[in-house]
Structures are given as C-alpha cells and as structure tokens.
Fold these 2 entries.
Entry 1:
Amino acid sequence: MLLAGCGSSRFLAPIKEAGKTRKAGPVTEFYVVQPGDTLYKIAFEHGLDYRDLAAWNGIADVNFIRSGERLRLLPPRKPVPATANGLRNAPPADVSQAAIDETEAVAAWIWPARGSLLENFDEATGNKGIDIAGKLGNPILAAAAGKVVYAGEGLRGYGKLIIIKHNQATLSAYAHHSRMLVSEGQAVAQGQKIGEMGDSDTDRVKLHFEIRRFGRPQNPLAYLPKS
C-alpha cells in the first residue's frame, strides 16, 4: 500500500510501545497530576474522554489543572461536589455518537506524512494507530485543522508527542518527532507543518499516528483518503 505517492510499502513487525495496549493490571482509580500534564494528555494516556475526566473531578475549565492534584479516573459513586477553588462541576459528558452534531465532524482528513505503512491499526493486538516510515527530518503535517492541546514527552513509548483537538469529540496524535514546531494552545491549519519525523522513544525513524473519538481509538485508514 502506497501512502502519499511514496515508494513500495513494507510491513514489519511491531517495533515499540507507542499505541500498544500494555498487559492488563489492577485498575488505577486515581492519578496525581505531574508538572507539564494537561487534562487531554491524561485522558489520552488512560483511554478516556477528557470531558468524562472533567465531569468526574468537578473541573469546569478543562485547560486548568494543578500539579499535585489527585484526579479520579473512574466514575464516582456520588455526584462530585464543587472544587476547592469554587468552580462548579462540569456537565456530565454524553459519549453517545448521537450526542455530537454531525456538523462538528471533520470534513476531510489528509495524510500527516509521506512514507510507507509499517504497521496497521489492529484492535486485536492493541495497536491504536498506524506507523508510517520516513527519513529523519521529514515534515509531519496536521491531518486536520484544530488546536494543539498537548506537546511534550510525558507519555512513555510516544517520544515527542503532539495532540490536536479538532472538535469536542475528536483528537489526533503524532508521536516520535525529532523536533516539534508548535506549542500548546496554538491553532493549526490543515496541512500545516507541526514537526519533523524522528525516532524519539523508538528504535527507527517513523510517525505513529492516532485518531480518537470520545477517547476511543479509531482506525485512521477509515478517515484518511485512499492512496
């Protein structure tokens, strides 16, 4: 399968941890916010919808969390009271597909990089995205317009990671940059160069790309244009 007009594709075995489901262990009920964390990053790491995370913890402003704060990762048994700083609870998130107006859907996606497909999305093996091969420094593009909600190295196995919010339901993620060219809070246009391909936290140069709706991984090939 050729992507964005590049050479012959190569299908290789899984290489590293980005996008892979780890071995099941005890369910973690709470998470302590670390310096540099955002609500979007925490939700992404734990496979949650950021709006659920906000509702369960009485967070009214999803752009504001404190380092050292303890966040609930499971639904509370009772309604969450107002937070200590007086903020009212965020409204509960409705994660049904019908809850999002179709007008909010991303109209069209573009490929985030040129290269051959290394690994496909596979729920059975826990691969949450696709891997695209390339050369060090190759441009990585925003697959759709949106706002950068995370840019950092705080998720093990993803290296230098950028997460873009496209609407209330949809995020895209771009891992293993050698260089990130955007910062949190920045609006980006579709096709804008957001970084350069690299091998941060993996053993070869590649882009690991994910699309998530309501916190759940989607098959990017169902959204990206056919090559």
Note: The first helix runs from residue 39 to 45.
Entry 2:
Amino acid sequence: MAVHTETAELLMEEVFRFGRALRVAVSTGDDRTELPAALVGVLGTLATHGECRQSELANAMCTSQSVLSRQLAELVDAGHVVRTPDPDDGRATRVRVSDAGLACLDRIKEHRVARLSRMLGDWDEDQANAALDSIRRLTSTFTDEAQARHSGQRILSHN
C-alpha cells in the first residue's frame, strides 16, 4: 500500500530536521580539530569505497566532478588523501585515503560515537535497533533513487 501524501510530507520534514539535528549534535564544536562536514563525508565515502578514480567517487556520491575536485584538492592539501597515477590510463589519477586521513576519520568517529552514546543513554537496545532499521531502509531508498537520477543525468548530458 502506498504512503499517503500527508505522511510523505511529514516524513520529508522530519528527515530534514533529523539531518540538521544530527549534524549539530555530533559536531565537536572545535573547528581546529574537525574537518568541515562536506569533507568528512568525502573522506568517509572514499574510505568505504576504497581507492578509485575521481569519476567513480563522484558517481558513488551522486555529485559533480567539479564539486568533488575542489573537495579532494582540500583533502590532498591537508594530507588526508593521496593521488596516484592510474596504471590503466596515464592521463587519469586515482585517489585513496592516506594514513593521516584514516587517523582523522577514526578521531572524528570516536568522538561522534561517544557523544551519540551519551545522548541515547535512556534508550534500550531494541529502540536503537528499530531506529537503525528505519534509517537504513530510508537511506537505501533515497540512495537508490539518487543514483538512478544521477546516472540518468549523466547519460542525458552525454547525448
């Protein structure tokens, strides 16, 4: 059975509120020790995805190569990402997270997990797992749709 329009509207509003609240809740508040959220996102996605071409990472993130290029340049300059020549195509490069980048991600994750654990102190494991299941399902639905649209836009832009 399809979701009612009113429910979809409420869900959309809550998802956006949740995203904003989560960003504020888990941030360190210390700009000297943490990367901007967008760069943490790129670094985390690259760490999960593994070494790849920039175009592959852009596709995985459903973003443009020009936006990603600027973000990767910042991460390379900070020593968190390493560019290497692509052995299959001398004109292209591959990117991977450096040891310093992995250490940075570990510090950020450790802080965020500790902070979130404190905030969920009055939740039980069943409540946390139910929330996790719902968030995973939403993420999967949204990601599948975004990647399908992103792939379609790339195909259309090349015609």
Note: The beta strands are 52-53, 81-86, 89-97.
